[in-house]
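Technical annex B. To support the medicinal chemistry partners, we prepared a structural model of the target in complex with 2-acetamido-2-deoxy-beta-D-glucopyranose, based solely on the information shown next.
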Amino acid sequence: MASLLIIFAILIFLLHFQHSSSFSLSVEKHEEDIIISPKGTFTAGFYPVGENAYSFAIWFTQKHKNLANATVVWMANRDQPVNGKCSRLSLLKTGNLVLTDAGHFDVWSTNTNSSKPLELILYDTGNLVLREHNKIGFVLWQSFDFPTDTLLPDQSFTRHMKLVSSKSGNKYSSGFYKLFFDNDNLLRLLYDGPQVSSIYWPSPWLVSWDASRSSNNSSRVAKLDVLGNFSSSDDFTLKTSDYGTVLQRRLTLDFDGNVRAYSRKHGQEKWLISGQFHQQPLKIHGICGPNSYSINNPKTGRKCVCLPGYNRINNQDWSQGCKPSFQLSCNNKTESKTRFQRLPHVDFYGYDYLHQANFTYKQCKQFCLRMCECIAFQYRLVNDEGVFYCYPKSQLRNGFSSPNFQGSIYLRLPKREHVSVHANVIKNGSLVCSRNDGVEQLKKSYVEDKENGSVKIILWFASGLGVIEALCFFMIWFFLFKNSEHFVIDNQGYVLAGATGFQKFTYSELKQATKCFSQEIGKGAGGTVYKGLLSDNRVVAIKRLHEANKEESEFLAELSVIGRLNHMNLIGMWGYCAEGKHRLLVFEYMEKGSLTDNLSSNALNWGKRYKIALGTAKCLAYLHEECLEWILHCDIKPQNILIDSNYQPKVADFGLSKLVQRNNFDNSSFSRMRGTRGYMGPEWIFNLPITSKVDVYSYGVVLLEMITGKSAMTGILITDGEKTHNESLVTWVREKRRNLSEMKSLVEQIVDPTLGSNYDMVKLETLTMVALKCVEEEKDMRPNMSEVVEMLQTHEHDSS
Ligand SMILES: *[C@@H]1O[C@H](CO)[C@@H](O)[C@H](O)[C@H]1NC(C)=O
Ligand SMILES: *[C@@H]1O[C@H](CO)[C@@H](O)[C@H](O)[C@H]1NC(C)=O
Ligand SMILES: *[C@@H]1O[C@H](CO)[C@@H](O)[C@H](O)[C@H]1NC(C)=O
Ligand SMILES: *[C@@H]1O[C@H](CO)[C@@H](O)[C@H](O)[C@H]1NC(C)=O
Ligand SMILES: *[C@@H]1O[C@H](CO)[C@@H](O)[C@H](O)[C@H]1NC(C)=O
Ligand SMILES: *[C@@H]1O[C@H](CO)[C@@H](O)[C@H](O)[C@H]1NC(C)=O
Ligand SMILES: *[C@@H]1O[C@H](CO)[C@@H](O)[C@H](O)[C@H]1NC(C)=O
Ligand SMILES: *[C@@H]1O[C@H](CO)[C@@H](O)[C@H](O)[C@H]1NC(C)=O
């Protein structure tokens, strides 16, 4: 530590020259005209911030020349970049350090004066210091006193300073978020937007001691130490997750409004997040503009969603929010013209007419109806008090949706308006990111509503004209999310699909693994399956889903269900890819192919067929009865039963599977027919309730196929005199049985002739008996899968 403080002068410019400026750095030579700290940790110089635009900045020195992704820790002129021609930073004889744009305008200066020889030094702490030559203690100016969005270890953050976020991940200009010491000595985060501003950290409704802060130390100073402890005079401390090690560290107010501690080992490129101020990023104000709210999906990140009946104002800038697609004026906001749509787990902070305790829902609704400006109300149970609170709202800002929030917003809508909450969430969640780096400036006027005389509007922040830049707020944010291990489980209780142990592949990896999807090995209802070779030499089957328009969140939800399933007769899933429109699943590869392939190639003797029948039954019994959720496969057929090298079956393809909560069987959720012709139970055809017995029926058909060697898909051609007609396998077997009395002679009639007469009669009789029970028309006559397993197991080791 002490060594860090030893000062190395790299560039010493003494005021002994004849010129008016003692030294200068030129933007044209920005690659050579740089200042490097003694140990090389930091570099100062002209940093490109856009097309022909430069800011004088300090950044962590990088190995490669490309500055585009350097970690900038300070900027002199973040809001006023200089031209790439003739701009320079000069230390004048008067002692002033000045940045001139295109040789003419001073855009920034240290406002220092001195008649003594001066030197400009970049310390290894990242502090750029202007001081008298060889006078260590005499600092005229230092960058540590004027932080931008980042604090470095041992940099004091004091009452005179504030951190201001950047506009976005790739725009360095000042954004809307600020960290500062408030008048009551508390360190706070403020959203200072073009229209409104509000404190969001610590939670604004908490008094200092409830937020574990003390307001009676007026020294107002905070500091991050080299070991990773950030502490402030108001008793706020943040101990980083890697506290105790000397690492490169920084504390940055990110463009999404959260302060994060980052750390990395020396020489490494990637920063890890080791702590953050705001524990619930969804609740950060201003991220989603008015009439929209943020939702979090662990994998896709944070999104802004318009309220039902509202449309996004600017698809490239979520912070502008949404506007109503309907019109309600004071005279038609009556009960007969409006209705309230409930949005559970959604909250909007602020802009309440009142906080009314112990109100019934009806009272709350009536209150809102009477208020012309009331566009929604929040109604929730406050647990500590055991009473319901009513919060009628005049504006809907700072919205978020979280399963942990136990209240609802009731949104006022015209009675006619038909709006689906879901359609809105799915369709307009995504943000169109503008690749255009040019700064688009929009003039936006804010017209204040006429105030209703009888109502005092609390928290009404009026403001005049504002200028909003079109931003891509979230791109880098997503990037951080994806790369940071520390965000795997966020505090809302979401668990990433990653927790299920799947590997996430990129599309290009899988494209390469399948040699551009050249070797097709199967086609299912949901997609096409290709053989692939991963870079670690594992052979895999890669299923590319056709329904690529499926929302990533929905896709991941299904994955997490599959991830919890684990049975030796269930195909193993190794990974997935969800990138843009692409949805792919990576499975273990079965060398021997499917049951269909094996039946047609005559590779299966009776022993193997019995083993496959039993294994498949066990797997289905597991799915139906042992899993936490009750899972129907709904597409049991030989193509979906794969065979491993030991002739064990592995049930594959959950493309059509439907999860059904036990005791909560909602038949209406099966809106369309599922399954494959020939294997579908009569319930599908007659529109009867769908239960696990549909899988039992399909399983019975598969057994019949294994016994007879005939395909259920094509059916059986019957020649009846001159006429021929096609009969289903099930009908064919049933008819055979009707004309016979004994099971034994039935077996002889239907058995697969290609296997000769060398069969185990007991086993075959069992199989046939089970198969016929499974394909009973009446679902209650069919056994369940565990009964099937039992019946098959009884004769597993028999032989005649
Ligand atoms: C930074 O950019 C260089 C060159 O484009 C690239 O090789 C490197 O991987 C990038 N680093 C990060 C952390 O993005
Ligand atoms: C610098 O300027 C200020 C006023 O602008 C003056 O009071 C001060 O004496 C000057 N210092 C030096 C060293 O010239
Ligand atoms: C400091 O503030 C706390 C409340 O935050 C109060 O209880 C305490 O008495 C104060 N101490 C002093 C010395 O003022
Ligand atoms: C962090 O620093 C504060 C103030 O110096 C101190 O009270 C606290 O104990 C430190 N925390 C750790 C973990 O060292
Ligand atoms: C106030 O905070 C500063 C910095 O954390 C600390 O050095 C000082 O002792 C505190 N003063 C009191 C009275 O607690
Ligand atoms: C309410 O009134 C406004 C104008 O007064 C009209 O434009 C709007 O269509 C009406 N809305 C309904 C739902 O009647
Ligand atoms: C709530 O209001 C009802 C009557 O409206 C009253 O009986 C009850 O005591 C109130 N509860 C509380 C907790 O104030
Ligand atoms: C989503 O936004 C687009 C573009 O603003 C709009 O055309 C579309 O109607 C919106 N969809 C919904 C469901 O609001």
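Notes passed to the chemistry partners:
The first strand starts at residue 21 and ends at 26.
Residues 1-19, 420-500, 658-672 have pLDDT under 50 and may be disordered.
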